[in-house]
Design brief:
about 55% helix, mainly alpha, DDE Tnp4 domain-containing protein, metal-binding, about 90 residues
Length: about 90
């Protein structure tokens, strides 16, 4: 897989969107690649934003213990996605 980043990370060895060449447009294939990459990045950024807004990591688990298994499964899947996205 690899690490995904925005255009500010170009040249660092991670996967970034294609920049428009000077005086030309991107090809349809490169536009499709940019769309796919940006969709993945947006989903990850939304998940991180939700964790920050909910303050889950700071305040601890405050819901019913019956909900804990479902929450733990969700967090585990996000962590697996994060770890395997690095490769």
């Amino acid at each position: 897989m690899g690490i995904n980043g925005d255009k500010g990370y170009q040249g660092t060895g991670i996967r970034t969107p294609y920049k428009k060449p000077p005086g030309r447009e991107l090809t349809d294939a490169r536009k499709a690649c940019n769309t796919a990459l940006n969709g993945i990045r947006a989903a990850v950024e939304r998940a991180i934003a939700h964790l920050k807004c909910w303050k889950v990591l700071k305040t601890g688990f405050r819901r019913s213990l019956e909900d804990f298994p479902a929450v733990l499964r969700s967090v585990t899947k996000l962590e697996v996605f994060r770890v395997y996205s690095l490769y």
